[in-house]
Specification:
293 residues; alpha+beta; 60s Ribosomal Protein L30, Chain: A; 8 helices; 37% helix
Length: 293
């Protein structure tokens, strides 16, 4: 009987991959172990460091140190014995600077002026077109721009004349400084007269100032200020909010704050005075000759 021919097995040329994979796995495990040994837990290290710093910096917790031997002590008077249960803390109150101290009282003349304005313009106050706000050092008279100006214009409208005339009659007999502040909404100006809402708000404040000076209010007591759209009192997302932001505010300072005008007068006096010399005066004594020369 013939012997069955043996089939030769095909030689596998990729057996090296098994050894290579085992080697890579062992190498990865080795680096993982090395990294776990070398890494430091920063949280635990910081806790340990803080604990050691607190332990070394903490003052002695014992009120009396340990005495060695017999130490003679001076007698302590009963009234001078400290109470250990009561902390020895003295409260020191820092004095307020002069500019931060509250005023001693309310300026009655300014408050009477606020009452008079509210009484004479009760209809406009009830309609929400004029609002009077009080403070210890000033009052604010807020006027909606709808009764003073047309849209995008700084020229006073016809209905604004009687309103501003009533206010000017009340301001004539006062010596208080008056700031006229103009405000607008955030809608960009759309004409060639004003570059931005800043110019429009300043021009509207200046129009009110010019009218007041024409009605007898002293010009040196007035100031025109334009804030533009950057100090809103309501959101500009709605038509009602934009209408509230378009306003003119008259700020009447109290008598104590009227010294702003006095300071300006003093500066004007200094400007008109003789100029001070820039350096020391030249020596007018005759020069003496040097014997050595």
């Amino acid at each position: 009987m013939a012997r069955k021919k043996r089939i030769e097995e095909h030689e596998n040329h990729e057996r090296w991959l098994v050894s290579y994979a085992d080697f890579i796995t062992l190498l990865f495990a080795f680096f993982v172990v090395m990294y776990s040994i070398s890494s430091v837990n920063e949280g635990k290290y910081r806790v340990l460091s803080d604990s050691m710093v607190a332990a070394f910096r903490d003052p002695a917790r014992s009120l009396e140190p340990v005495q060695v031997g017999d130490l003679m002590r001076a007698p302590v008077q009963p009234e001078e014995t400290p109470d250990r249960n009561k902390p020895n803390i003295e409260v020191f109150k820092m004095p307020q600077p002069a500019e931060q101290q509250e005023p001693e009282g309310i300026d009655e003349s300014v408050q009477d002026l606020a009452d008079s304005i509210e009484a004479s313009m009760a209809d406009l106050v009830d309609d929400g077109l004029i609002q009077v706000r009080r403070d210890k050092r000033w009052i604010e008279v807020e006027i909606k721009s709808s009764i003073l100006f047309d849209s995008g214009s700084a020229g006073l409208s016809a209905p604004s004349a009687p309103v501003l005339k009533k206010l000017a009659d009340k301001f004539k007999g006062l010596d208080n400084v008056i700031h006229v502040e103009g405000f607008t909404d955030n809608v960009p100006i759309n004409n060639f007269d004003y570059l931005s809402n800043w110019e429009l708000s300043a021009a509207r404040a200046a129009s009110v100032v010019h009218l007041f000076t024409g009605l007898g209010v002293q010009p040196k007591r007035l100031a025109a200020i334009g804030y533009g759209e950057f100090r809103p009192v309501a959101s500009n997302d709605t038509a009602d909010g934009r209408a509230r932001n378009r306003r003119v505010v008259l700020v009447i300072m109290s008598g104590s704050d009227a010294r702003v005008s006095q300071r300006l007068d003093h500066l004007q006096t200094l400007r008109e005075g003789p100029p001070e010399p820039l350096g020391p005066a030249p020596d007018s004594s005759p020069a003496t000759a040097d014997p050595a020369s």
